[in-house]
Amino acid sequence: MARPRILMLVLAGGAGGRLELLTEHRAKPAVPFGGAYRLIDVPLSNAHHSGIDDVWVIEQFHAASIADHLANGRPWDLDRTHGGLLILHPDPSVPGESWHRGTADALWRQAPLIREFAPEHLVVVSADAVYRLDYADVVRAHADARADVTMVTTRRPIEEAGRYGVVRVAGGRVTEYVYKPDEPATDLVATEVFVFAPGRTLDLLDEIAAKAGDDGPGDLGDALLPALVNEATAVEYRLGGYWRDLGTVPAYLAAHLELVGAQPPIRLDDPAWPMLAAQARHGAARVERGAEVVDVLLAPGARVGGRVERSVLSPDVVVHPGARVVDSVLLPGAVVERGAVVTAAIVDAGARIGAGARVEGERSDSGVVLVAAGARVAPGAVVAAGARVRRDEPAG
């Protein structure tokens, strides 16, 4: 039996403002994750393991930070003569074109190319969550149901559900979809992984765009998904395994700390489903005499001379002797000098924590400390819980 023609679109153009300083100079999908990866590596790795060969990435904000990481798509076997990886971005120089005004708008503006490609199934995903999923299984379920849209769903605590599209289901059919409601009716949410019937979806987007005028179709959840639920056939595909959205600073830290225990809920190095990424050349990680490392992910090129507990250290991070790092994430090239203590913090690339300084974060929604890329915490300075240390405003 011939394989169905599948096209996957990764919506990688969002500003990612809730990640604050982490997305000031990089796109959200380019934010580092897990010591040696980027957020966009999650859907691209899932695509590779699912046997999807045609992947288009739609960029917008800080596009160079994504394009540099993707290069030619080789780590995900997308460097092909025909098909493979295609990077798309808005081009305001084209008459009628403008910056994308939402995820549905981004999809709609690529409609001519999608129609030309003529896929049987259109897989659309975001790049801001960590999970393992065989997209081919979702496509098969979608085809069997003869659905117009299949929404991959999962359960989240009811107090978090309002951040997402909340759904009601009956017998596998989606009977209601409400985008980011103030008072969620259920704890079942859409994970921003969808399979669409291309023809019905693009025709409906044309209708929505015509009514919206200059504002465009907005986000997928604004009009398209509710219309497909109300006017077409919408089904769910329940994701029973791990799924974690990394849309906020506390969630970003929490997701990392989930990786470092004895039994993490997801393994990035699982031989059966490894995370794939474009890796720069680094030497081996080094743990010096007298150093202590307990429940730590240690990336290549990292060097530890002090004590590190329940943390993730990215490539070329240095923790000097006498320093201590606890419950934290240190991004590439961050340095913690002698005698400094870093707790419940995210220290971005190239930042430096001065000798004897104390970064006193707390593991709570308001207590995580964020130190911007290239920022400096002065020797002996004290940074209080919840602080944001900017590059042009060095602490201390």
Question: What does it look like?
Answer:
Keywords: Glycogen biosynthesis, Nucleotidyltransferase, Transferase. This is Glucose-1-phosphate adenylyltransferase. With 396 residues, this protein is an alpha/beta fold. It folds into two domains: 236 residues, Spore Coat Polysaccharide Biosynthesis Protein SpsA, Chain A (Alpha-Beta Complex), CATH 3.90.550; 101 residues, UDP N-Acetylglucosamine Acyltransferase, domain 1, CATH 2.160.10.10. The protein has nine helices and 29 strands. Strands 15, 17, 19, 20, 22, 23, 25, 26, 28 and 29 form a ten-stranded parallel sheet that branches. The chain has a seven-stranded mixed sheet with strand order 5-4-1-6-11-8-12, with helices on both faces. The protein has a six-stranded parallel sheet with strand order 14-16-18-21-24-27, with no helix packed on it. A hairpin with a 2-residue loop joins strand 9 and strand 10. The longest helix is centred in the middle third of the chain and has 15 residues. It is elongated and about 65 Å long. The model has no long low-confidence stretch (mean pLDDT 91).
Descriptive terms for the model:
396 residues, alpha/beta, Spore Coat Polysaccharide Biosynthesis Protein SpsA, Chain A, UDP N-Acetylglucosamine Acyltransferase, domain 1, 2 domains, seven-stranded mixed β-sheet, 29 strands, Glucose-1-phosphate adenylyltransferase
Strand content: 25-35%
Helical run tally: 9
Could you please say which CATH topology of the largest domain applies here? Spore Coat Polysaccharide Biosynthesis Protein SpsA, Chain A
Distance between the termini: 66 Å
Largest sheet descriptor: 10 strands, parallel
CATH superfamily of the largest domain: Spore Coat Polysaccharide Biosynthesis Protein SpsA, Chain A
CATH architecture of the largest domain: Alpha-Beta Complex
Helix content: 10-25%
Q: Number of DSSP strands?
A: 29
> Which class of secondary structure composition applies to the elements?
alpha/beta
CATH class identity of the largest domain: Alpha Beta
Total separate domains: 2
What is Rg? 22 Å
**Runs with pLDDT <50, length 5+?**
none
What would the principal axes of the Cα set say about the shape?
Answer: elongated
Nearest-integer average pLDDT: 91
